[in-house]
Design goal:
6-stranded parallel beta sheet, Rossmann fold, alpha/beta, 8-stranded mixed beta sheet, 395 residues, elongated, 2 domains, 15 helices
Length: 395
């Protein structure tokens, strides 16, 4: 099935004569719109890019899961949307359909997220005019298959820039795939600042089954190995064992294949009355109830949820992995702990828990840090890369 929505933008408005009024036609591509950092980023890119300079289209290649951003996307009905349902790498019919769209629409630039999209579009671009292609590496992939490493190495030669959000990802990917570091550009993830919006904290807590006076320590994440949630649960059990405070609650918000295992762990540790696991929710609507936001990841690039927590003034405890220490300075705008170490994590959380002045101070610092990652700054940088590549290609 292919779904193409071309509402709101007429092709006759797209000038291609090289004059000052040119609008650059760009296709943003990702696997699907399941809830996740890359998926949220591509929606923000399409939503916020300057429509006076660019004509953005969105393309998804694979079917959605149950938890997705399709409702969010409906708010952007004026953006042309090309939706495909690849059944696998050997789905020749879908390859042909995507090639046909690329050939018909004559895009000026391609912007791809995650390996499958990066691979498919860069291959097809060889047959539709070899336009500038930008790809995003969102994480460090320790378990990346050999053929994917080889493909990325070969296709990097036909790639304008490989965007990464931290030095950690740049160095890892460059070394893993033997790609020159000049091919990369660091473009930290953007966040949308909450502004002065007010929230009914009592209602949010009530809807989650939490008492009004609950002091909440928790995180918002996918329930996958990378996020280190078993170590968070173990740390929570250690804290609850030692503290005499009855108002402390732990909260996990998200979804993923590890959910049953996490629930069983909570039951085995007999902390299910003080540690709640909730289905996914809009992080902006739930962040205000957190007193301490925890990022217990085993590996990361630049966690968007952490930056959003910092932007809301939360005090953050995170593991010192990947790009996190590039943003979170221990003792200044948060606290760092060792990965895979519930004792270290519990110690850092307890320090933050017991020192209100520390929580307030790092929360203020964190909010200031997060402003450097605002959406307008990010979009301006991204647009400059696109404009430079387009002008170079045209000349």
């Amino acid at each position: 099935m292919t779904e193409t929505n071309n509402m709101g933008i007429s092709e006759q408005n797209i000038k291609r004569d090289g004059n000052v009024g040119v609008r650059i036609k760009i296709l943003f591509i990702i696997g699907n719109l399941d809830v996740g950092g890359a998926e949220k980023l591509i929606i923000n890119q399409v939503k916020n890019i300057d429509k006076n300079k660019f004509v953005p289209h969105l393309c998804t290649l694979f079917p959605y899961g149950d938890n997705n951003y399709s409702e969010v996307w409906k708010e952007l009905s004026d953006i042309p949307y090309h939706r495909f349902n690849f059944k696998g790498p050997y789905d020749v019919f879908s390859w042909i359909k995507v090639w046909s769209i690329l050939r018909k629409e004559k895009f000026d630039i391609f912007c791809c997220h995650l390996f499958e999209s990066n691979f498919i579009i860069r291959i097809l671009n060889l047959f539709v005019g070899r336009k500038p292609v930008f790809i995003f590496e969102h994480n460090v992939y320790f378990k990346k298959q050999w053929w994917k490493i080889l493909a990325d190495k070969i296709l990097a030669k036909k790639t304008s820039k490989i965007f990464v959000d931290s030095h950690a990802i740049l160095n890892f990917t460059s070394d893993q795939e033997n790609i020159d570091k000049d091919k990369f550009a660091i473009l930290p993830y953007p966040i949308e600042l909450l502004g002065d919006k007010t929230f009914d904290l009592a209602k949010i807590k009530h809807d989650l089954g939490l008492p009004d006076n609950a002091f909440i320590i928790g995180t918002v994440a996918r329930f996958v190995e990378q996020k280190g949630l078993p170590y968070f649960i173990q740390a929570a059990a250690k804290i609850l064992e030692k503290t005499k405070r009855e108002d402390i609650y732990f909260l996990l918000v998200g979804y993923g294949k590890m959910e049953l295992d996490l629930r069983m762990m909570v039951d085995d540790l007999k902390i299910n009355s003080r540690l709640l696991i909730s289905p996914p929710k809009d992080i902006k609507e739930i962040l205000p109830i957190f007193d301490i936001f925890v990022v217990p990841s085993l590996w990361e690039g630049q966690p968007i949820a952490m930056l959003e927590a910092m932007a809301s003034g939360r005090s953050v405890v995170a593991t010192k992995v990947g790009g996190i220490p590039e943003i979170l300075i221990d003792g200044k705008n948060g606290l760092l702990s060792e990965p895979k170490d519930p004792n270290s994590l519990a110690k850092a959380i307890t320090k933050m828990l017991e020192d209100e002045k520390l929580r307030v101070r790092v929360g203020i610092e964190a909010k200031g840090t997060a402003h450097n990652y605002s959406m307008p700054i990010y979009i301006n940088k991204l647009e400059k890369y696109f404009l430079d590549a387009y002008n170079e290609n045209e000349n």
